[in-house]
Every structure is written in C-alpha cells, then in structure tokens.
Design brief:
There is one protein chain. With 147 residues, this protein is an alpha/beta fold. Helix content is 31%, strand content 18%. The chain has three helices and five strands. A five-stranded mixed beta sheet has the order 1-3-2-5-4, sandwiched between helices. Strand 4 and strand 5 form a beta hairpin. The chain starts with 5 loop residues before the first helix and ends in a 16-residue tail after the last strand.
Length: 147
C-alpha cells in the first residue's frame, strides 16, 4: 500500500478545518449545527441536496459565488443546489430564503420567520429553511421571526 500523499492529507485537513470553522461561526450566533455527518446519517433532504449538487457538478452547472476564492467556510442551500456560497453571501441570504417544503417566504425578514436546519458535511455546510407551518413538531422553536 502506498503511503498517503502529504499534499492531499494537508488539503483534506484544510477543507475539514474550514467546515469546522463555519460550524463554530454559527454556534457563536447560538445556532445549532449537526455533524459532521456521513451519508448513512443524513436525513432525506440532505441526501437530496448532495445528489442535486453532484448532478450540477457532473453536468458543469455547479457554480461558486464570486467570493469563493479558496478553501474557506462555505454553504449550499437546499433550495439552490447549484451555487456554493461564501460565508458572507450565505449569511446575507438568510433574510430572503424560502421554505423547502412549500416555497413560502421563511427567512429572517418574513413576518413569522422560520427554522433553519444546518448540517456540517465534509467541506460544506448544508442548509434548508422551513416556514413555521411546515416545521415538524419535534423541531425547536423558530430560528428567526416571532414563530
């Protein structure tokens, strides 16, 4: 067996560290992030998001926002699986996000707000937003708004 490539080991370590840093940034805001997770542990919405992102990567339509210039905290939204967002663009999107289940406005600027679920994957934060009527009963109170 060949020894591990030091460059790849370093690269994977940096990617993992950027994902951990993104999770820490959310935790500093008092928000919960699950993970890191494996595909076996992923909920169906996360599996669907990863599959959609992979399709976009294969067919050449996966894009990064213009601010993604290297290994850094980044996110991909379940409602927009063709764009990897830098941390600032991800945070800015919070106000105008829509519910993944019904398409209603559920971001922090909406009247009743919603619940964001965030999962730490390898190298990316996966995120979905649900409006208050679509939130499962077991979910915590609203992430945003008065809901």
């Amino acid at each position: 067996m060949n020894p591990p490539d030091p460059f790849l080991t370093s690269l994977y370590d940096q990617i993992e560290a950027s994902s951990a840093h993104g999770s820490a940034l959310l935790a500093a805001d008092g928000r919960q992030v699950r993970g890191p997770i494996t595909m076996a542990e992923a909920e169906p919405w996360t599996v669907d998001l990863i599959a959609a992102m992979s399709r976009h990567r294969r067919d050449g339509t996966l894009r990064c926002c213009v601010h993604v210039t290297g290994i850094q905290p980044a996110a991909i939204l379940a409602e927009q699986p063709d764009v990897i967002l830098c941390w600032e663009c991800y945070r800015a999107s919070t106000a105008t996000r829509v519910c993944l289940s019904c398409g209603r406005f559920a971001g922090s600027a909406s009247r009743f707000g919603g619940v964001e679920e965030s999962v730490r994957g390898i190298g990316l934060l996966y995120s979905r937003m649900l409006c208050m009527p679509c939130v499962r009963p077991a979910s915590p109170g609203g992430t945003f708004g008065s809901g």
